Amino acid sequence: MLFGDDHVRRYEETDGEEGYTWMKGAPILILTTTGRRSGKERKSPLIFGEHDGAYVVVASKGGAPDHPDWYKNLAADPAVRVQVKADKFPARARTAVGEERAKLWSRMVEVWPDYEDYQRKTEREIPVVVLERPA
C-alpha cells in the first residue's frame, strides 16, 4: 500500500496507473500547494470526490486536533495544482461553507465513510475544500 512521498512518486511516474485507487477503492488525486513558510512546492495524495465539474477533498488529518499542513498552505495561497491520473491542471482552492459544505461532506462520507469517525475525534469542524479549474 502506497503512502506519503512514495505514493506521490509512483502516482506521478505512472500517471496514476499506480496509486489512483487506494484503500477500500478510494480515488486519489495529487494536490500541489506552496509552502506557506518555505515557499516550496508541497505534494499530497488525497482522497477526492467530484461535484459539478470540480474536485472535492477533505482536510481531516485522521481527526487530529489541527488542520493538515496542505490545508494551511492553500488557506495562505489558494492557487494550487492538481493531478488526476494523467490530467494535470492549475486550480483555485476554496473552503466550502454552510449548506454547500453539508452537501459535500455527505458526498465525501460516501466516498470515505471513516470521515465520520474522524469528525467525532476532533472538536474542529473538518474543512471540505473545492478545487476548481480556471474558467
From TrEMBL:
Pfam families: F420H2_quin_red. GO terms for molecular function: coenzyme F420 binding; oxidoreductase activity. InterPro entries: F420H2_quin_Rdtase (IPR004378), Split_barrel_FMN-bd (IPR012349). One of its GO terms (cellular component) is plasma membrane. It comes from the Bacteria. It catalyses: oxidized coenzyme F420-(gamma-L-Glu)(n) + a quinol + H(+) = reduced coenzyme F420-(gamma-L-Glu)(n) + a quinone. Belongs to the F420H(2)-dependent quinone reductase family. NCBIfam families: hi_GC_TIGR00026 (TIGR00026). This is Deazaflavin-dependent nitroreductase family protein.
